[in-house]
Design goal:
Blueprint: E1 8-13, E2 20-27, E3 31-36, E4 46-50, E5 54-58, H1 61-72, H2 88-99, E6 102-105, E7 112-121, E8 124-130, E9 136-143, E10 149-152, H3 155-165
Antiparallel strand pairs: 1-2, 1-5, 2-3, 3-4, 4-10, 6-7, 6-10, 7-8, 8-9
């Protein structure tokens, strides 16, 4: 993985069709931190992906072309992009402190869970849910080991937070 640091990669999984793409910021045995490249030449926020079920990491001519455009737009990786990923509790606390909102998904990317941290302990994450109308609502509890991807500082989440903060 060291050879891919600060480069655009695509990640394929053995158990789902979705592919993740982004600039590799950091990694460890359990997580990968990317500056998210959801489509074409766009960077939109960040994602932390659990290494579980990764079947292939791709860096080819197409990713190099996209990477070049991203670098030309001055959106390459910087020291400010780093988030601690060695301890999931510290990761969620840092996301909450710096951004005030995040979302995560389990195996399927079709369902997301946006919110802010209320509590994290004993293998469980408690969030205050934010709905599609930007209303902070009920608390929800999730098992930490079911989380496959954490996203933050993207346009969607930042928009929800702005709306919620300005009601």
């Amino acid at each position: 993985m060291n050879t891919y640091l600060n480069q655009l990669i695509k990640i394929k999984f053995s158990d789902k069709k979705e592919v993740e793409s982004g600039l590799l910021i950091d990694f460890n045995d359990e997580w990968i931190l990317l500056k998210s490249n959801p489509v074409d030449y766009i960077i939109d926020g960040y994602c932390i992906i659990r290494n579980k079920n990764i079947s292939k990491i791709i860096s080819d001519d197409k990713t190099k072309k996209i990477e070049k455009a991203i670098i030309l737009k001055n959106m390459s990786v910087s020291e400010n992009d780093k988030i601690p990923i060695n301890d999931i509790k510290t990761t969620f606390e840092e996301l909450n402190k710096r951004f005030g909102i995040f979302q995560f998904s389990k195996k399927s990317d079709n369902v997301i869970y946006p919110g802010r941290l209320k509590k994290i302990s004993e293998g469980k994450l408690t969030i205050e849910w934010i709905d599609l109308e930007a209303n902070w609502s009920k608390k929800r509890i999730f098992k930490l080991d079911g989380i496959r991807k954490i996203e933050f500082n993207n346009d969607y989440l930042n928009s929800l937070k702005l709306l919620a903060d300005n009601k």
